[in-house]
Amino acid sequence: MAIQWFPGHMHAARKKVAETLARVDMVIEVVDARLPHSSCNPMINKLRSFRQRPSLVIINKTDMADPQLNQAWLNWFRQQPQTNAMLLGEESRGSAGSRIAEMCRQIVPNRTGAEKPIRALILGIPNVGKSTLMNALMKRRIANVADTPGVTKSQQRVELADGTILYDTPGLLWPKLESELTGYRLALGGSIGRNAYDEVDVAWFALETLRERYPDVLLQRYKLKTLEGEVEDVFNAIARQRGAVMSGGRIDEQKAAEIIITDFRSGNLGRLTLERPDEFTGLPTMSQKLADLDVEPAEDEED
What is the pLDDT averaged over residues 165-190? Predict the structure, then answer.
């Protein structure tokens, strides 16, 4: 079953992003290192390409992702037009904040000093860590942080100590997820509201994916002897191992699904990445029409 989720506040946020892009110099997009391509919003790429705004992609949560694929994804993003990228998750937030600021200065070197501060728009899908990043950059809590997608619902403007102006936005998906795989990956990563998917389906997807890519992880975590058979067989074996059984020996599918999904999101399964760069040909390019997004562009603003 295809997964779709685009709650009402995202309609308003999408239009606000288009307006704000007219008065910023660059975009900072945060993606999830466990699903870098699926968590990269193609609508953001279209909008910034239309405006000719360069981008810094922050690959967040790298401490939860496959170390070898972290570097591969860093290289992949750096090959995209008008894009630089950095890994985030295995260093102190203070150090990361300094590095982000330096990379922004390299991307827009024409913006210097108090009279021409860098103006950056921070974007990303829900639950990739944008609010945590904002709090780290400001060295204090200014944004609510939660595991539930959709917590931030309005845009806010903050100014860093060096004068850099940041616009933080709500987590933003795109109106239609064309790929069924993308929908399931986003649901497993926690970027889609729980009312939009069936947790048992997502848990089965997780097992199917991990059996192919990280079989030893499943065997060790759930003390299984084999992964052979149907996905349902593996799911039921995990349920029994973890005590997700009701009276009469029936499997408690909901409890078993929650165990598997929570283990992935919390990192209990280890450092895993659900997709590889060689599975994708590239992000949408400027040649794709902005009209497809149903967003009216605003005039660029100068200061």
Answer: 90
